[in-house]
Hints:
The complex is a heterodimer. Chain A has one domain: Rossmann fold (3-Layer(aba) Sandwich). Helix content of chain A is 27%, strand content 19%. Chain A has 10 helices and 13 strands. Chain A has helices at 38-53, 68-71, 90-100, 112-118, 120-129, 173-180, 193-205, 231-237, 287-299, 317-321, and strands at residues 60-64, 81-84, 105-111, 133-139, 142-143, 149-150, 184-189, 209-215, 238-240, 243-247, 263-266, 272-276, 303-310. In chain A, a hairpin with a 5-residue loop joins strand 5 (142-143) and strand 6. Chain B is globular. Chain B is built from 20 helices and 23 strands. In chain B, the strands form 5 sheets. A 7-stranded mixed beta sheet of chain B has the order 11-10-12-13-15-14-21, with helices on both faces. Chain B is 39% helix and 20% strand. Chain B folds into 4 domains: 4-204, Pyruvate-ferredoxin Oxidoreductase, domain 3 (3-Layer(aba) Sandwich), CATH 3.40.920.10; 217-400, 3-Layer(aba) Sandwich (Rossmann fold), CATH 3.40.50.970; 418-488, no CATH class; 494-604, 3-Layer(aba) Sandwich (Rossmann fold). Classes of the chains: A alpha/beta, B alpha/beta. At the A-B interface, strand 1, strand 2, helix 3, helix 5 and helix 10 of A face strand 9, helix 8, strand 11, helix 10 and helix 11 of B.
Amino acid sequence: MPSIRKPGVTHPGLARNALGLTIRDYEGGMSTLCAGCGHDSVTAAITQALWETGTPLHMIAKLSGIGCSAKTAAYFAGGAHGFNGAHGRMPPIATGASAANRDLLCIGISGDGDSLSIGLGHLGHLVRRNVRMLYVIENNGVYGLTKGQFSASADYGSTTKRGDANRLQPIDPIFLGLSLGATFLARGFSGDKRQLVPILRAAMAHHGLAIVDVISPCVTFNDHEGSTKSYLFTRQHDVQMTVTDFVPPEHEIAATIPAAGVISVPMHDGATLRFRNVPEGYDPTDRTAVLEHLTAARGRGEIVTGLLYIDEHASDLHELGNTSVQPLAQVPYEKLCPGSAALAGVGFH
Amino acid sequence: MVSEIAAAARPKVNDFTIKLANVNGTGSSSANNLLMRAIFRMGVPVSGKNLFPSNIQGLPTWYEIRVNKDGHVARAREYDVMVAMNGQTYAQDIAEVEKGGYLMYDSSWPLDRALIREDVTYFGVPLAEMCNDAFKGPRERILMKNIACAGALVALLGIDMDVIAQLLTEQFAGKEKLRASNQLALRLGHDFAVEHFEHPLPCRVETMDATRGSILIDGNTAAALGCVYAGATVAAWYPITPSTSLMDAFAKYCAKFRRDPETGRNNYLVIQAEDELAAIGMVLGASWAGARAFTSTSGPGISLMQELLGLGYYAEVPAVVFDVQRTGPSTGMPTRVQQADILSCAYASHGDTKHLLLFPADPAECFEMAVQAFDLAEHFQTPVFVLSDLDIGMNDWVCPALEWDDSYTPDRGRVLDADELRELGVYHRFEPADAESVAARTLPGVSELGAYFTRGSGHGSDGGYTERPGEYQEVVDRLARKHTAAAEHMPAPVVDDSAHAAIGIVTVGSCELAVREAVDLLKERGIAVDHMRVRGFPFGSAVRAFLDTHDTIVVVELNRDAQLRTLLTMETPVPKEKLHSVLVYGGYPMSAQDVVDGVMPLVEA
């Protein structure tokens, strides 16, 4: 993917994070996406969230498949390693990277074609393995690079620019995740960075696979009247199911007393998630309740956003494999080779 | 009942072949193993080949044991002794016995008179009857029938009963009840044969000292051990015959050797992937992040991995792939052997790609080449294939006890650490390249100075995206040079040109034993041939020299389309017309007779 280096000028007044880095340090190459593309807003939100976490750049691994979304991995955290693999195959590559080095903060950037069509099987199994990573789906319902075909997330009845209506049922990654046992499910809108950044921070801190489905309109092929993934349609139908505050471990929570409509969920690393404006009966840790609410909302034609479901207790890939705390890639060879003496008992003598 | 023909048969001490026809899922394999192991323990070279169906229970399955004092234990197509335990295949099995040979059957039921051959000696043993009397429960009766059958063979073939008793003691240590019933069944068969038949037969086993220092092991187990010793920590795979036992063995040995005694945690991770696309993806991801990672598969898996193998090649990410070859195309015959993935591995994936291939010929080489594969993959930053096959992978072979040099250090290739990156200042992924056209790579998690974007899209030497012809070509030309540079790193071919003959046989992998035997058979006929077994691709100078110095080359391989021959024609300057083929591709291993039959017309021409 083409990328253009940004001018290296930094404003002296920019805020610095715990590592002394400014947000500019977490930026990447210049985007070559269309002007107004939702993906660029997602990139900005990821950049902001990464800067806030204070993660050293070399500990970030960016992984993507193929498509407009996949390009965006080059547009943030330029000081981090990236792996732009093959269409739909990012989940296995990310699984391998995470298997080899569990200390990496893996960030997968995908799209609806990548995740819900060609790579759907891989996504499903990534969920089952609960690989610890942030998995962003930049969801626009359309294939951009091949000029406007419907993707698997296109809503029934949504039309192309020419007016052809989609007659296939959409695949919704949130419902998919709920049925497969996903441990972190959120939906955002590229047009709402204020909502998205705390969700991304929570996702980065999550103990397992965090899927963040972001409605990210395609200004060139899917932003017209008749599209259900346009800016206008999304704004008109966006219903925030929850408002989430991410409270990092270093910040003490002022009130542990349960307030009406507020649910606190402690995270594995000591951070706390505070869900505000939660509707009655909604519990983001109760899969059945979440499924009921989302099903009802779908019936009402709402595009539900927010951090929708979280399970901090499920075992992740490395717990399931009982792997060493030291990343496998760093275990010294001497600990790996049993030596000549161990061969004595090998084979039938 | 000893026929005249059989009585006149020449003694075949330590030189005969038995074929056992069974129904799969009846426990015949443990009886077959017992016989083979006993012969091995008696110091006699032996091979056991399992010709099994792709099925769990109820279909015909055969096991061939070849005993040969000279070590010629390739598959033989003639059977001196047939053990016909499967009514479904009586007619075929009886027809396959050599003239003057022997056939044992279960005489609990009468044999169809139409199946009686005058030139074969029949031994009827009432196996079902005796086991029904001695054992309770249908399952035990069926299992013990096979052991009783082995008991009768022990008597007929002169196998040492003490050796058998010792094997049962070892096999059923701590399971006294099982040992006792096996011992009883053996004894039933043995005593019946002793009482009713003249024994031992002219084809029989006598103690030798030819297996000292050797072990019985299958290639998949040996390859898995190679991965453990090489320091592989991440393994990803999708179950497929005949490679499954490789990953099973890896997991087993890791559980034994790789669990940290202090923490109880594993210094390895085996991931059963959702498909082979995912398996190779996980391997690439793990290698990219700095682990030694591998997958094991067979032909259909290689087909599914094509796209990402090209990514590994172009993005220069190490990967080790074991392809335990079976009969293709498509599903083919999953439990039968071929060497038919040579070309699909050599040029795996779309676009201009060329890979590094290793060709083990036996389990010992599976062990060695597993280690070499990781060294080559990391040295050259590219996928490496180990092309084993079903015969090597799943059958037990007599081979020298595996050895390990404790001074071995892995060749991790050119990888820059944080200090080196600081010194360097500006890092470019693909430059500067060294004399072998390899550039230094960096790993995530080390230093932001080494950050780069790994991509399968067009890139220049700095690693950045490009669509410029010159920049693109600079990279792919270097990849071609890198492939060429690897030739002299591949294991040298095994060459015997002591006959200084005009004819040279070229072969690969598991055909080696058949070729060696054929060379001896041809020698007996006064025909001298040299031979060479290639062990790696790209081909090095020794391969080219052998091709240069022989007027007629016969390429012996297990596929229809002469894939090794094609590769030799494309990748060496050898004139095509010099190359002839011996091709066996019905799913069974190569035999010496196949090779002799293929070479003779060329000699006579």
